[in-house]
Specification:
The protein is an alpha/beta fold. The chain is 41% helix and 18% strand. Pfam families: PHB_depo_C.
Length: 402
């Protein structure tokens, strides 16, 4: 019923957007000469933004500067499974660059949320990304996708990329990246990454617990399954699949910072009304991404909540992968860097750094940690401080272990 109610709301939002387009077409020719017309056009454009979308936004990275020239970038699907694509941002250059697998979170948004992160890394690296698919559109016949299947995808993708790759995991998949590295180390897999950079990830949620952590422990896992899991309706390709809907997750994110989002939309209206197109476009671009939602397979969501946020299985080094125990101490040849934000209210300082205590087999010269002052969660991997202060250290770390 939860998903059916949302689909009804989506249909109503589509009608609102249609009315908004019609009104904007009517008023936009007069905005140069009439202030009321600008106000009406701005109202119409706000109507056009009603509702969420399940369509993956484009990465939109057509070219990057490498050295002193602009180099075209094209997206190439290297490997495709029902649940995700290993996407390569291919550049036609002769210089060999470090291969980096960017591991995107499965937390209600598409991997395109890391667009800025990818763009920053592309001039110096050969970048791949885990481009996860929307569970709403995956047929039940494709099978389950849980915690182990996520890890298996990382192992498979790294094997496809071949020896000498590096991993950069952002937020939630810091956990799965650690497990994948341990699995490959225990198997003596030649494709095990040379380094892994874990950015703002919940390795040990017992440290400085945030509101997100407290919510996860406030209810038994049965409550999450009963109240937050829905069945995909018949109108979608994944009909019958149990999912944690992206619209639920995004609603939770918005509720955590309601005032900020209300102010953001207020600012957007006035920028539109005042003809400040560049300022309006910046806000629109952010919310186009923020309100593009992706559903998670129910088993992945529930297993992650239970394993990472309730039982702290990884933090206790008690995790099992496909029934076999995983020893993070087996990681000896994959260098480790952790990055945290001083003001992160989703993954607090100390939670990611805990990975160093678990990776007991690493020599001191293979470890690095950076705490970035003045940034919250998203500032760790996007924005000016990411570009000017965090990224140079990540780049140097990868180069040092390439």
């Amino acid at each position: 019923m939860l998903y059916d109610a949302f689909d009804l709301q989506t249909d109503l939002a589509a009608q609102t957007r249609a009315w908004g387009r019609m009104l904007n077409d009517a008023w936009s020719p007069w905005i140069r000469w009439s202030e009321p017309a600008r106000w009406m056009s701005a109202n119409a454009r706000m109507m056009m933004r009603a509702g969420l979308t399940f369509a993956r936004p484009a990465y939109g990275i057509e070219a990057v500067d490498v050295g002193n020239r602009s180099v075209p970038v094209r997206e190439e699907a290297v490997e495709v499974t029902p649940f995700g694509t290993l996407l390569h941002f291919k550049k036609d250059i002769h210089t060999e660059q470090p291969k980096v697998l960017m591991v995107a979170p499965l937390s209600g948004h598409f991997a395109t949320l890391l667009r800025a992160t990818v763009r920053t890394m592309l001039p110096d690296h050969d970048v791949y990304i885990t481009d996860w698919h929307n569970a709403r559109d995956i047929p039940v016949s494709a099978g389950r996708f849980g915690f182990d299947e996520y890890v298996a995808h990382l192992v498979q993708f790294l094997q496809t990329m071949g020896e000498g790759s590096h991993v950069v995991a952002v937020c939630q998949p810091a956990v799965q990246a650690l497990v994948a590295a341990a699995v490959m180390a225990q198997a003596k897999d030649a494709a095990a990454p040379r380094s892994m950079t874990l950015m703002a990830g919940p390795v040990d949620c017992r440290i400085n617990p945030t509101g997100v952590n407290e919510l996860a422990t406030s209810k038994p896992i049965e409550w999450f399954e009963k109240n937050l899991i829905a069945t995909v309706p018949a109108r979608h390709k994944g009909a019958g699949r149990r999912v944690y809907p992206g619209f639920v997750q995004v609603s939770a994110f918005v509720s955590m910072n309601t005032k900020r989002h209300v102010q953001g939309h207020t600012d957007l209206f006035w920028h539109m009304a005042n003809g400040e197109d560049s300022k309006a476009e910046a806000i629109e671009t952010f919310y186009d991404e923020y309100f593009a939602v992706l559903d998670l397979a129910a088993e992945f969501y529930l297993e992650t909540v239970k394993t990472v946020f309730q039982d702290y299985t990884l933090a206790k080094n008690e995790l099992r992968y496909r029934g076999a125990p995983i020893d993070l101490g087996a990681i000896r040849r994959t260098a480790l860097m952790t990055v945290e934000g001083e003001r992160d209210d989703i993954c607090a300082p100390g939670q990611t750094m805990a990975a160093h205590d678990l990776c007991t087999g690493l020599a001191p010269y293979m470890r690095s940690h950076h705490l970035q002052a003045g940034v919250g969660h998203y500032g760790v991997f996007a924005g000016k401080r990411w570009e000017t202060q965090i990224y140079p250290q990540v780049r140097n770390f990868i180069q040092a272990h390439n």
